[in-house]
Design goal:
Elements lengths: L3 E4 L3 H11 L5 E4 L23 E4 L5 H11 L4 H7 L1 E2 L4 E4 L1 H14 L3 E4 L11 E3 L7 H11 L4 E6 L3 E3 L9 E3 L9 E6 L1 H12 L8 H4 L2 E2 L6 H5 L27 E7 L6 E4 L8 H8 L10 E3 L3 E6 L2 H4 L12 E3 L9 H20 L11 H9 L30 H17 L4
Parallel strand pairs: 1-2, 1-7, 2-6, 7-17, 8-12
Antiparallel strand pairs: 3-5, 4-5, 8-16, 9-14, 9-15, 10-11, 11-13, 13-14
Length: 435
């Protein structure tokens, strides 16, 4: 049986490899790390989480939660490993990132159908290929992909949040809670009054940033992962209505809803490390330390990883891909992960799963599957491959992608009911869907 070359052992590439292996197809999985680094990854394990450790909501009435449920129904492999390595995060699925990556790496290294090769690929190989090299694709391969797609790449910046040691947090000021008390109280919250917030804000907007290269200055930020300093530049209250939103977070010791709140989310299974939610940044490290120590409860925090920013790359999928993730111009060539313009960890895994399934279909002579448009993954892949897009930008899973449901006039503003019906419709469409 034909073998498959997969470029990139990140989330998408690892998922695709496991999908092919369980169907008896041999895989050569290429990963350039640790021989060549990306500038954002810190280790050499497969499926490494970089920006955050969260896969988003687990609730199927949330688009991200429904996408995870769809993956479970379609036989996703990494979603199982994620659940096995979950850490408390309220109503979200967050993982102990090192445990997760190590578990995925072990699965791949022990799989008799997968050969993990630590080499950089600089050109698209012949034969059956899945390109899942990610948003930090090496310059040489990116140039070759650009030649194949006959178009310029688009770029946006992705920024990583700092991580602090939990023992260095002052719990006389910080408190445990999840928003609106949903699920377990699994977030650390650092509250601010108006004076504390204004002091924090003034430090932030005046803090020095790391200089960008000229080519990077022309690139764009992705809205869902904006650096905190960019958000702050939009107005003094922008953070209070974004990552520092205080609504639904009350310290039981005081009963006070504060002016602003910084949340920290568990980052490892030992509960020793926590990352600052929504605090991705490109500030210089000294400025980051001053800023974080201006947050009540973090005055003496030990920063174990500073925030960094890197450029992400994605193809112009509407002109390159079918909704099956196969290239329009070359049968047997698939793309998966953030390189396709599907932004987010859950989306990366899901597109890797679909690319793996469809590659197997292609090899066995079957037609690649086209998922129902009422599913999140089906709608997402249709969106990124829609040739009518002239200004394509990366996108997360969201309800706006799927066809609407009809509601009685009196219920049309009932968002909860609408989302419940959308989720029910999607799951029903997959019940008898054959892959």
């Amino acid at each position: 049986m034909n073998s498959v070359t997969i470029i990139g052992a990140g989330l998408a590439g690892s998922e695709a490899a496991l999908q092919l292996s369980k169907r008896g197809i041999k895989v050569k999985l290429y990963e350039m790390r640790p021989n060549k680094t990306t500038g954002a990854h810190v280790g050499s394990d497969c499926a490494e989480f970089v920006c955050s450790n969260s896969l988003g909501s687990s609730d199927v009435t949330n688009a991200s939660g429904l996408l995870k449920k769809e993956m479970e129904m379609l036989g996703g492999e990494l979603i199982k490993i994620a659940i096995e390595n979950a850490v408390p995060a309220g109503n979200a699925l967050a993982i102990a990132r090192e445990d997760f990556s190590q578990a995925v790496t072990k699965r791949i290294e022990e799989d008799p159908n997968i050969e993990l090769i630590r080499e950089e690929i600089t050109e698209i190989p012949d034969g059956n290929v899945i390109i899942a090299s990610g948003p930090l694709t090496s310059d040489a391969l990116a140039e070759n992909i650009k030649e194949f797609t006959k178009s310029e790449h688009l770029h946006f910046f992705d920024a990583i949040a700092p991580i602090v040691e939990v023992d260095s947090i002052n719990f006389d000021k910080a408190f445990w809670a999840s928003r609106y008390n949903k699920g377990e109280a699994s977030y650390i919250n650092c509250p601010m009054n108006k004076e504390e917030y204004e002091n924090f804000y003034n430090i932030l907007i005046n803090a020095p940033r790391i200089e960008q290269h000229e080519i990077d200055k022309k690139s764009k930020f992705f809205e869902s992962c904006l650096p905190v300093e960019v958000l702050a530049s939009r107005g003094v209250d922008t953070l209070r209505f974004g990552p520092m939103k205080p609504v639904g977070l009350v310290d039981d010791r005081t009963g006070i809803e504060n002016y602003a709140v910084v949340q920290l989310r568990q980052d490892n299974s030992a509960k020793t490390l926590f990352n600052l939610v929504g605090f991705q940044t490109n500030l210089k490290w000294g400025a980051q330390k001053e800023l974080l120590q201006a947050i009540p409860g973090l005055e003496n925090c030990n920063i174990v990883r500073y925030g960094v920013m890197h450029r992400n790359t994605f193809i112009n999928s509407p002109t390159v891909l079918h909704p099956t993730l196969e290239a329009r111009e070359r049968q047997g060539l698939f793309f998966a992960g953030q390189l396709t313009g599907t932004e987010g960890y859950t989306e990366s895994i899901a597109t890797g799963m679909l690319a793996g399934i469809n590659m197997a279909k292609r090899i066995t002579g079957d037609e690649p599957i086209l998922l129902p448009e009422v599913t999140i993954l089906g709608a997402l892949t249709r969106y990124i491959s829609n040739s009518e897009h002239t200004q394509f930008q990366p996108i997360n899973s969201n309800w706006a992608l799927v066809p609407p449901v009809e509601l009685p006039k009196k219920e049309r503003k009932n968002k909860k009911l609408k989302n419940e019906l959308l989720a029910k419709r999607a799951l029903k469409s997959l019940e008898n869907f054959m892959i």
